[in-house]
Amino acid sequence: MARAIIAGVDRSARSRAAADWAAREALLRGMPLQVVHVAPSDGPDPAERWPYRPETVADRVVAELVGRHPSLTARSMNVTGAAVSVLRAVAEEAELLVLGLRGEGGHAGVVLGSTASALAMECARPVVLVPGTLTGEGPQGRADGVTVGIDARNPAGGVLGLAFETARLRGARLHAVHAWSPPAGAAMSPFPSLEEERAAWDSEVRLLSDALRPWRSEYPEVEVLEDVVLLPAVAALTHAAGNSGLAVAGRHTGGTALALLRHARCPVAVVPA
Questions:
Q1: How far apart (Å, rounded) are the C-alpha atoms in residues 85 and 90?
Q2: What DSSP letter does each residue of the chain carry, written as one string?
Q3: 238 phi-psi bin (left φ>0, alpha ψ -120 to 50, beta other)
């Protein structure tokens, strides 16, 4: 069975914005879209079900998406259970699982919801978390640019594979960012300032070039900007992602990936190592 893109939705505008991103990605990749709504077993009482009853949420989202994207192949799935476990199981063979940063139950001051956070750290497949709403201020940056965080000493193939393939599909430039931890006592700056640091800097540049070389050979059509930055990983990736339509990070980075989700203003893909 061909892989699909899964969009997890609830009744919020945030999840519908994520579903719309998923629909456009499905069209770009030539894949079907499956829209999934998981209602809790102790679901809301009838007075709280407006505007959609739990058993029809996914159906209505599919109808909206097909109306907006007539060539989209999409199906709906409405189930009852625990959102994290159900979506994790449904997405086991998916190309991508796409969610909003937080769901309908999130508080205004919470950037990253508990369901999104748990799936980003537990799902067997890449998870894309999308900020913004359809009616509000949407994701910032270029619509097609892709930024990827890479540890040049231990490059993760799954992370680079998704980043390069996404850039190829979009005909976009790939910005590969290697955050170099500054030597003890060095001033925080995007570039080395001391002569004795120059050799170490050049070594990091070579490491990044070596890590990307096989991927450049596999994807010769992708323009790549190789970037070594003397900043903490979160700061380096957040700054670079400000000019992108998608940021890609490895789940093995743990705190870095979660922090990026809280700071980036574009969709972020978290890829299991």
A1: 9
A2: ----EEEEE-SSHHHHHHHHHHHHHHHHHT--EEEEEEE-TT---GGG--S--GGGHHHHHHHHHHHHSTT--EEEEEEES-HHHHHHHHGGG-SEEEEESS-TT--TT-SS-HHHHHHHHH-SS-EEEE-S-SSS----S-SS-EEEE--TTS--HHHHHHHHHHHHHHT--EEEEEEPPPPTT----SS--SHHHHHHHHHHHHHHHHHHHHHHHH-TTS-EEEEEESS-HHHHHHHHHTT-SEEEEEGGGTHHHHHHHHH-SS-EEEE--
A3: alpha
**Domains of the chain and any CATH numbers:** 5-130 (3.40.50.620), 146-271 (3.40.50.12370)
Is the confidence at residue 19, as pLDDT, over 50? yes
- Best CA proximity match to 246, nearest among 123, 151, 141, 118: 141
Whether the predicted model's global pTM rises above the 0.90 cut: no
Residue 140 has pLDDT above 50, yes or no: no
Which pLDDT score, from 0 to 100, does residue 255 have?
A: 78
243-266 pLDDT tens trace? 799 999 999 876 788 888 888 889
Q: Is the pLDDT of residue 47 over 60?
A: no
pLDDT on residue 134: 56
Cis peptide before 51 (omega within 30 of 0): yes
**Distance (Å, rounded) from C-alpha 146 to C-alpha 166?**
7
Q: If 0-12 CB within 10 Å is exposed, 13-18 middle and 19+ buried, where does residue 198 land? A: exposed
Q: Which of 266, 225, 272 is nearest to 252 (CA)?
A: 272
Taking the C-alpha atoms of residue 235 and residue 241, their distance in angstroms, rounded to an integer, is: 10
